[in-house]
Amino acid sequence: MIPVIAAKEILEIRRDGRFRIAAIVFWLLSMSAFAAGVAHYAALTREAQTASQDERARWLDQGRKYPHAAAHYGVFAFKSPRPLTVFDSGIEPYLGSSIWLEAHKQNEPLYRPAEDATPLQRFGDLTLARLAQELVPLLIIILGYAAFAGERETGTLRQLMSLGVPGRKLLLGKAAGLASGIAVLCLPAVLLVFVSSAALSEPQGAADEFMRMALLVLAYGAYLGGFIFLTLTVSAWCRTARAALVILLAFWALSVLAVPRFLSGEIGAIYPAGLTIDRRTALETALKEAGAQLEEKQKSELFKKYNVTRIEDLPFDYWGVALQADEEGKYEIFEKHYAQLFDALARETALYQLGTLLSPLTGLQIVSMSLAGSDTSQHRDFIQQAEAYRRVIHTVINDYILKHAARNAEGVWKVEAGRELWETIPPFQYKRPGAAGVLPHCGLGFALLGLWLALCFAAAWRAAGRINPL
After folding, report:
1. How far apart are CA 185 and CA 193, in angstroms?
2. How far is CA 392 from the centre of its chain?
């Protein structure tokens, strides 16, 4: 019986002019969003590769100099995007794509694309994720609001139930039919993303991208499935199709347009996660204090160990030791500072995911960005990898100063280095984290999306069991 009901619903959807118009519009928007996503990904990847090659050449061709001068000469580290950013660019436009690595400092990422965007672009980028998050629920409402209420108004619902058709079987059949119509709309976009992920992924990373894509399908399925059952619930409760449409449109406007933006602003006010002036000042003060203390401690220990009173009397170049000690002594300060910054972002994310209790879109957005690799957790991973690379650079340089410095005729320690040293430092290569490392960041979102689907199904099941055909 359920397949028959579903087939009847599918036939009505196919005959519905609204569906044909919606399908054409949605497919055109999907193709535009996909093309824009691919172009954006290709541009970012090309820029990162070209800049990395140019930066490597600049580093190797800097000539002979005092090695610590090369540490201040510095090098850029660039982040390349994941293939799934074609689907969901997330907050990538608001995060820096490169970091300047130099001695004594852990700098902030630079060159955020949003800084160069026009006011119209800042209003919102057209992405496949945004279409699925905002437009598809609206299409579900338009196609399904009259599922029960419309048949009640025309009298066919009473006829069906007089023949002994249970309300709950009607529910399952109508849900299957509506889901089939939405699947027809979304399948081309899903296939495009699968194909692009396969084409853009490196061979060793293809399996990880497919796993992320499968989890994305699961998350969006729960989100849209909830809207299907919610639409059928309201349609079963309301006396008229018009009333059902008004209620559903009001819910869509609140949950998709209003609540996420409200929560984002309020949570940002509760947990300001940006690099504020106070945080930057506190960091600079801590670094200065630590630097002075480390230098005095280092001198005292070395003077005592070698029984001297001046750094000139040490049997090695003091600065090779001092510079490395200064770097290592500040590691803990940088780690504490950035841990506080990203802990604040993590609290923001957790609170925003809890907003799923008010709007299912909030949980889906976090899950979608996490799986697409366009969220703060992957950005944090990039910053940590860049900092680890910075430490390697300066450890190698300071070790070279210590081992190769020699006294000149005036008794002053001197050392120079050239390409032979610069080549020993490998180029920076960002390694993207696997899907398993992402799940902890979006587990709460998955759980709440599952709860959203379960609650909507339970409400629809109850409404269908008590449906009034009159």
Report:
1. 14
2. 28
Of 138, 218, 174, 136, the closest CA to residue 460 belongs to 174
Exposure b/e, 136-160, CB count within 10 A at least 16 = b? bbbbbbbbbbbbbbbbbeeeebeeb
With CA atoms as reference, report the closest residue to 369 among 95, 186, 32. 95
73-118 pLDDT, tens digit per residue, is: 889 999 888 899 999 988 877 777 888 998 888 887 765 554 444 4
CA–CA separation, 181 and 314 (whole Å)? 80
Q: DSSP character for 132?
A: I
Tokens in use for 368? 């979608």
Say if pTM beats, i.e. exceeds, 0.70.
yes
| Mean of pLDDT over the chain | 84
Give per-residue burial for 366-375: e unless 16+ CB within 10 Å, then b.
bbbbbbbbbb
Tokens 């006010």, residue located: 269
Q: Could you tell me the pLDDT band of residue 360, with boundaries at 50, 70 and 90?
A: very high
Instruction: Identify the CA nearest to 321 among candidates 351, 298, 297, 287.
Output: 298
How many beta carbons lie within 10 A of that of residue 120, not counting itself?
7
Q: What phi, psi does 264 have (nearest 5°)?
A: -60, -45
Burial 258-292 (b: 16+ CB within 10 A, else e): ebbeebeeebeeeeebeeeeebeeebeebbeeeee
Paired tokens of 48: 């990162």
